[in-house]
Structures are given as structure tokens and as C-alpha cells.
Amino acid sequence: MAHFNKKNLGVASSRNIGIKLCHNTDYISFLDADDKILPNFSNVISNKNIYGDLIAFKFDYFFNNKQEKNNFYKEDRVLEGKDIEEYFYKYLTKPNKHSLFTTCWAKLYRTKLLINNKSLYFNEKLLICEDTDFVFRFLTKSKNIQYINESVYLHVLGIAKENLYKLTFGAKLDTRNQISFLTVVESCKNYFIKNGHTSSEIQNRIDHCTDAYTIIYIIRSCVRINSLSSFISTYLFWKDIYNKNILSSKMLNYSFKRAEGHWLLPFLIKKKMYFIAILTAFYICNKRYL
Amino acid sequence: MKLGLIITSYNDEDTLKKAIQSAAIFKKKKISLLR
């Protein structure tokens, strides 16, 4: 066991150090310190016929003292190109509901593929969504993808104030990290383009996903609000993002029904009522996460 | 199969300790399987 205690590197950089240290292994897997590998993991990887570049396992959530099961596929299977596209279409519709490939843990990655393709390493500029971006780029290079229908990983979800310390929420990071999802959506788009689709074929879905993510991250960015000044800075951040056209307030291809989201927040953004939008997001955030 | 398990932790003693424990348990389990 190698133990490196370098502080404040960022999770992407730390994982990249880990990848280099594991260069002489067959596969690499990731574990977040507040999650758990289930006791059957060793048996599962020993007993199953593992040969793919990427092996995705079923995983469970731990929330409110209860273990909640995920259901991705009914049985072990090899995921062909059409399966991955089908997954991406679902993901692009509801990016927060289809989590099989949005997290880097509960998977095995062929070490050789990583070591031989440095471009597949974690993007160290990303402090949020770096794992989704990593998996999407790895999927693009993977020839054989397997799914194993046995839970081997328990992801512990934060309750109330614990979310302030979850990296996913980036409450301690600069607010601009909240738009890291733009890189992720681009990586997803690249998957389609590398598999023979044209940009225009998928642009509507990409736009919908970008707007769905925007709603999610506007709400999540409110986790950090603990004073009037933090509210104002969060409001000014999002207002600036729309005023500079980094994101379009028109949300032309977004459907809250398809995303299974609420109508009010996108309505306020379309009307450019950003102050009320952030107030609404703050209310939703407190109800949902804190 | 030789598996590299990469554990990332926050910079606080508690989670770091938990992470190292997780790794140690897994390594022990793997060794027992190989015997």
C-alpha cells in the first residue's frame, strides 16, 4: 500500500498520481474515502470473466441510514456501441438520473489503456464533474465494455450540513467551478462525433442537457449561501454567466417535463429574472440538500 | 488479476484513517483469496 499525503492537490490531480503509481497493474479502480467497497467485491472480480477495457458494476446508495439499490440492467452483459448511445440519450435527457457512467468509482479501468493514453487522465482543471468527464472520455477509447449486475460499492450520500463538505457541491470552491458541466457535455458530444454522428444531429439533446445541468448547478451553488453577501455573489455570478452569453437564457431546446424538473426556475431564467431565480434556487436547495 | 485501488480522501484525520482502513481490509481479503 502506498500512502501519499500531499495536501490541496485537488481530486483529479491526486487520482492521476494514483494512476501513475498503479502502472504495473492490470486494472485500476477508485474509492472515495467516505464510501465503502462491499465485502463481495473481491469474490465478484475473481469469479466473473473480466476482460473488458471498462467494467461497470452495479452500486448502491446509502442515505438516511438506508441502503438503496440501483437498477441499471437486469443481468451481466457486454455493452455494445448501441447500448452506450442509448445510455447517453437517456443521460442527455435527465443527467442527474442516469448515474451508471457519471461516477468514476464502482468500475474497473484497464491500466494499459490509461497508461498508453495520457489524454485519458483526469482533467486537472476540473474540480467538480471531473469523474464524469473522465469516464466519458474513457468510454470513447474503450473497445469492450462490460456490465456486472452485482453491487460492489456503497456510495454514501450526504445529509443536511454534511453536503457543505461534499466535493460534488464545491461549496468551498470558487463559484466558477459550478459550470464544469460544460466540459462534461462536450466530452459526451465527442463520444457521438467519434462514433459517426454529426454535431447537428445531437445538438438539440446537448442543449437540453446543458440547460438541465444549469438548473441543477444553480440549485447546488446555493449550498454555499450562508450570508447576504454570499447570496449576492452567487446571484451576480449566474447573472454574469447569462449576460456574457456563456449560457443562453433562451433555453430553446430545454423541456422541464423531459428533464423531470420544476417549471419555475427555467421560467424565471427565460424571463431574465435572475434575482428571483436565485431566491427560488436557494429555497429549493435548502429543502433538497440542507 | 493485479488491481490498483486508488483512494482519495479529504485532508482530515478521520476520513484519511477510514480510507487507509478500507484499503487494508481489501488487501487482506485479496491475499486470502490468492492463497
Summarize the structure in words:
The complex is a heterodimer of chains A (290) and B (35). With 290 residues, chain A is of the alpha+beta class. Chain A has 11 helices and 7 strands. In chain A, 44% of the residues lie in helices and 14% in strands. Chain B has 35 residues and is of the alpha+beta class. Chain B is elongated, with a radius of gyration of 11 Å. At the A-B interface, α1, β1, β2 and α2 of A face β1 and α1 of B. β1 of chain A pairs parallel with β1 of chain B, so a sheet runs across the interface.
How many structural domains are formed by the residues of chain A? 2
Form type of chain A: globular
Q: What is the average of the pLDDT values of chain B?
A: 71
Record field, number of beta strands of chain B: 1
Query: Largest interface, with Cβ-Cβ < 8 Å?
Result: A-B, 35 and 24 residues
Task: Describe this protein with a few key phrases.
heterodimer; A: alpha+beta; Spore Coat Polysaccharide Biosynthesis Protein SpsA, Chain A; seven-stranded mixed beta sheet; 11 helices; B: 35 residues; alpha+beta
How is this structure best summarized?
The complex is a heterodimer of chains A (290) and B (35). By secondary structure, chain A is of the alpha+beta class.
Q: What is the fold's blueprint, element by element?
A:
The complex is a heterodimer of chains A (290) and B (35).
Chain A: H1 11-21, E1 27-32, E2 36-37, H2 41-47, E3 54-63, E4 66-69, E5 77-79, H3 81-93, E6 107-110, H4 111-116, H5 130-141, E7 145-156, H6 181-194, H7 199-221, H8 228-243, H9 256-259, H10 264-270, H11 274-288
Parallel strand pairs in A: 3-7
Antiparallel strand pairs in A: 1-6, 2-7, 3-4, 3-6, 5-7
Helix pairs in contact in A: 3-7, 5-6, 6-7, 7-11, 8-11, 10-11
Chain B: E1 3-8, H1 13-34
